[in-house]
Amino acid sequence: MVNSNKNESMKNLFIGIDYSKKKFDVSLLERYKMQEIKHEYFENTPEGCKAMLKWIQLQTTIPPEEWLFCGEHTGLYGVLLTEFLVKKKFFVWIENPMQIKLSTGLKREKNDKVDSQEIARYAYRFQDKARCFQIQDKSLKSLQLLLSFRDRLMRNKHSILVAAQEIRAVLKRDTTARYIYEQTKKDVERLNKEIKDVESRMKEIIQASEELKENYLLVTSIKGIAMINTVALMIHTDNFTRFQNCRQLACYAGVVPFEKTSGSSIKSGSHISHLANIQIKTLLTQAARSAVLYNPELRQYYERKIKEGKLEQIVINNVRNKLLHRIFAIVQKKQPYQVNYINSLNKNVA
How far apart are CA 239 and CA 215, in angstroms? Predict the structure, then answer.
């Protein structure tokens, strides 16, 4: 999902939406009736979307151009209603769930109705930060679905392999165990084939889009950055258009250290935040470990820092940060990575 175009007009009706698999809860909050919140829920179907609009129109006299819909980014559950509203030209703001959660303070009650009310209040308090949602590019959406499917296949493969390793200990003296092991090997072979098929489909989608293809070739020119790393980054950055600078992207990926101090006596040093996109963070870790093996420049940096006594996890995080700076720089400049070229941005990462 993509948010852009700052909210420039005054909004007077704030509509909080809590998405779930089968239904969505809706709460209405009018600017001049703060104590009166109206609530209803609807089926998460095309009919439910239409019924919701009719219900809102019966509850208020505020014109539609002064409505602000706000919901949490919950993946597939919110796609139907969100795209329905965007096509109807409504202002829809899709926000990070953690951002909303941290703004609500302590809560003793939690259910879908309460959550939708909190979202409506959040939209009212932070309306100046609202960004209008735009439907994601079709190619990126397809890549996102394929990446999610590949992740499920990888998890299935991992669980099967773990079970196979456990049963190997009794293979020699148990024919049933051998049968299970052989069947497991067939399952792994099947999953490997399906994973390769998914990756082939990803490549076909990228090849068919000039914009995706260009950035894909640029990013993969960096040693350590493979196809899945690049696809995930393109999805979560909307093909590198979502963030204005590399620090924003690095914060989103959870690789920027932040200082934590309190007064003059308590100081814990700088630490990376746990508020991050876990998928990107994990993939960047894999890329960093690959880079220190196959990228001579980064391998030299890694070995030097380890000899200096730096903690390995800190050095790996620095490598993740360096990779992100390089990715952001070459996408901006539209030129492949050059081994002997040192971008000024990298000097900021010690």
Answer: 8
Give me 9's structure tokens.
């007009």
pTM score, whole prediction: 0.73
Range name among 50-64, 109-123, 252-266, 320-334 with the lowest pLDDT average = 252-266
Q: Which residues make Cβ contacts (< 8 Å) with residue 195, sequence separation at least 6?
A: 150, 153, 154, 157
The torsion region of residue 11 among left (phi > 0), alpha (psi -120 to 50) and beta comes to beta
Is 136 within 8 Å of 58 (Cβ atoms)?
Answer: no
3-state SS track over the chain: CEEEEECCCCCCEEEEEEECCCEEEEEEEECCEEEEEEEEEEECCHHHHHHHHHHHHHHCCCCHHHEEEEEECCHHHHHHHHHHHHHCCCCEEEECHHHHHHHCCCCCCCCHHHHHHHHHHHHHHCHHHCEEEECCCHHHHHHHHHHHHHHHHHHHHHHHHHHHHHHHHHCCCCHHHHHHHHHHHHHHHHHHHHHHHHHHHHHHHHHHCHHHHHHHHHHCCCCCCCHHHHHHHHHHCCCCCCCCCHHHHHHHHCCCEEEEEECCCEEEEEEECCCCCHHHHHHHHHHHHHHHHHCHHHHHHHHHHHHCCCCHHHHHHHHHHHHHHHHHHHHHHCCCCCCCCCCHHHHHCC
Residue bearing tokens 């109705």: 113
Across all residues in the chain, what is the average pLDDT? 86
pLDDT greater than 60 at residue 213: yes
Compute how many other C-beta atoms are within 10 angstroms of the C-beta atom of residue 226.
Answer: 15
Closest Cα partner for 81 from 115, 54, 47, 114? 47
Q: Return the pLDDT at 306.
A: 94
